[in-house]
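WARN retry 2 of 3 for item q-0093 after timeout on previous attempt; input resubmitted unchanged.
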Amino acid sequence: MVKKYFRLMILHFSLILVVLLPDSIALNNDSSLKLYLAFDEENGKIAKDHSKSRLEGRLSGKAKFVKNGRFGGALSLEDSNSLVQLPATDELNITKSITIAAWIFPLVNQKDSNVIGRRTAANVGGYCIQWSGLGAVAKVETWIGLPVWQGTRNLQKTEPKLEKWHHVVAIYDGNEIKQYVNGKLDAYLKIPDREIASQKVELHIGKAQTGLPGIVGKIDEVAIYDRALTKDEIKSDMQKGVFFSVEPSEKLATKWATLKR
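OK item q-0093 returned
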């Protein structure tokens, strides 16, 4: 009986190593991943960046960590003045191509609000994702400074429902802006051979540098890459989350639950 127990334990650990390590190593070696916020801290005012950039985001206003995220914990922005500020750093000074991704759980159809953005107080940028309805049902918007702002407003097909999780991705690959919602292409426009007019300013999650209100709701799994992800890579991040060799316990629990299905 004892031998059988130990054999089962070895089998369980072998399964974890076989399934987890390939994903972890692949992501850990991806030098294009410049920011990854898992929001699994549970308390405090600092959000840790698990990419190689090792940045820190400072929570302000009514921003707080909660347990019921899409994968493990999440960031809750209780009102439109809440935000997380990340420092003005070269790691986020992206000019060639970019992918911005996050899970959002919107609670309100807002007129115009910021999800994630890096732009000046005078609205020179940069890059951002917004949640905006302008008096109607709110939709996801991608905006890239090339150098003037180019975006997906009025091109979107998807109307994400309130109080549900949605995976949103904004991409500029040097030729096109593409926006994905829940793994499906939602909007795109061709803007060939332009550089992103990146500004060395703070990156905000929630209330923008311009004073634009922040999205009200929850955010999880924020990731920024300095390249355009493929559709398969987008679906992988959406379905599995962004994993690392040293993972928060909640992320491991989620992965183990997947294994047991």
